[in-house]
TrEMBL record:
Organism, as annotated: Dyella jiangningensis
UniProt protein name: N-ethylammeline chlorohydrolase
UniProt key word Hydrolase: yes
Pfam families assigned to the protein according to its UniProt record, in alphabetical order: Amidohydro_1 (PF01979)
Domain spans labelled Amidohydrolase-related: 65-413
Keyword Zinc among record annotations: yes
InterPro entries on file: Amidohydro-rel, Metal-dep_hydrolase_composite, Metal_Hydrolase, MTA/SAH_deaminase
Family, similarity comment: Belongs to the metallo-dependent hydrolases superfamily. ATZ/TRZ family.
Length: 446
């Protein structure tokens, strides 16, 4: 009998369980993920994998579940350096009295770079492999993510007042196009338009964004219906709810990533479903700022793509997607008055594949399938905090802590090995963070 020679590949990850997310709700036991050149070649039983493949590297994870890397679908990661600066305040006081004045004095290349470095280290240690970024200096943000080997879609900011990034409407758009062009075809970094919110962006800017979004085939990442005050203010100004105004301007379509959405009517939910809008649920930030409750289960039942984001560390105060997943599921049940709402398997999907879909990346990441990028995270479930173990999805959604993430790969490159960051100098990151703490504390005290 002839024997087939095992195929040489870069990596074989063997795990006690694999949750591929697609197909939905499936848990595979004693399976392996074969990876070559950063791409998943196959998902198959371990014994079959050992026969079929000759890996240059093998990871044996006998007490772990392997999941797609978590996707944080709304972040302001340079603001990690503002973590805990101004807490227990309503949104507009928090923004206008603390965050914006401090940002006005520190924002620049170094602040953005150092904040992203701290955020990437935190995210990888928590099993997150992709972020949907929304902040100024997207050129620096994108370059930092790229240098660190982290996947991101970088928002191209548009707002109607001068900032350190741009002074005029035309400059915002000119610089947006420059940054977009600089990352065209990049393996890890993409771009989207990131107009701040309906109350800070003009009709003219939204119309330009609509045209350019179509031409460049990129998403529009927008804070929308975050608070009741925002809705009432727009109604007083234009006679329309913000969502109605966006509909009128042609922004409500399948490229819209609508963040927060705590104030929604049934008609608006139906319109989101019909138009293919993705909604990003940021439960912990919304709870902390008392912004309101996103009707996540109503959106899910209507067929809207619901993803999960942490928001920035200045209003959360962490980038813990396991915590966010749990809060999203629990809050959705309370809001819907239904214990079966936003079940565990859907919560994991919202934190992975739905986020990828919102960002236009679901053909590349978000599930463990042959042909997709090898962005995966391993979670050790043998800890006493996740024992006894009856249902994998339930443990992931309701009991697992980010400290149980042991290993992470992005595009097949190992970024975390046994809880140790493989290519980040944590001492250097912390030293820069401590220096920023001193400088920012002095500004806020003044």
């Amino acid at each position: 009998m002839s024997q087939t020679t095992p195929q040489s590949i870069d990596l074989l990850i063997e795990a006690r369980w694999v949750v591929p997310v697609e197909p939905h709700g499936v848990v595979l036991e004693h399976h392996a993920v074969a990876v070559d050149k950063g791409v998943i070649v196959a998902l198959l039983p371990i014994n079959d994998a050992r026969t079929a493949y000759a890996p240059r590297e093998r990871a044996e994870l006998g007490e772990h579940v392997l999941i797609p890397g978590l996707v944080n679908t709304h972040t302001h990661n340079p603001m990690t350096l503002l973590r805990g600066l101004a807490d227990d305040l309503p949104l507009m006081v928090w923004l206008q009295k603390h965050i914006w004045p401090v940002e006005g004095q520190v924002i620049g290349h170094e602040f953005v770079r150092d904040g992203v470095e701290l955020a990437v280290a935190e995210m990888i240690r928590g099993g997150t492999t992709c972020a949907n970024e929304n902040y100024f200096f997207p050129d620096v943000i994108g370059a930092t993510y790229k240098r660190m080997g982290f996947r991101a879609v970088v928002g191209l900011p548009v707002i109607e007042f001068p900032t350190a990034w741009a002074k005029t409407q035309d400059e915002y758009f000119d610089r947006a196009i420059e940054v977009h062009d600089s990352f065209l075809g990049d393996a890890l970094i993409g771009t989207s338009f990131a107009p701040h919110a309906p109350y800070t962006v003009s009709d003219e800017s939204f119309e330009r964004i609509r045209v350019l979004s179509d031409q460049l085939d990129i998403q529009v990442h927008l804070h929308t219906h975050e608070t009741a005050h925002e809705v009432e203010e727009e109604k007083a100004k234009s006679g329309l709810r913000p969502f109605q105004r966006l509909q009128k301007l042609g922004i409500v379509n399948d490229r819209l990533i609508a963040v927060h959405m705590t104030q929604m009517t049934d008609a608006e939910i139906a319109a989101c479903a019909e138009a293919g809008v993705s909604v990003v649920h940021c439960p912990e930030s919304n709870l902390k700022l008392a912004s309101g409750f996103c009707p996540a289960e109503k959106l899910r039942q209507a067929g809207v793509n619901v993803a999960i984001g942490t928001d920035g560390c200045a209003s959360n105060n962490d980038l813990d997607m396991f915590g966010e997943m749990r809060t999203a599921a629990l809050l959705a049940k309370a809001v819907a008055n239904d214990a079966a709402a936003f079940d565990a398997a859907y919560a994991l999907r919202a934190a992975t594949l739905n986020g990828a879909r919102a960002m236009g990346l679901d053909d590349r990441i978000g599930s463990i399938e042959a042909g997709k990028q090898a962005d995966v995270a391993a979670i050790r479930l043998s800890d006493l905090e996740t024992q006894p173990l009856f249902h994998i999805a339930s443990q992931l959604a309701y009991a697992t802590g980010r400290h149980q993430v042991t290993d992470v790969w992005i595009h097949g490159v190992r970024k975390l090995a046994g809880r140790v960051l493989t290519d980040i100098d944590t001492d250097a990151v912390l030293a820069k963070t401590h220096a920023w703490r001193e400088r920012i504390a002095a500004i806020d005290a003044g």
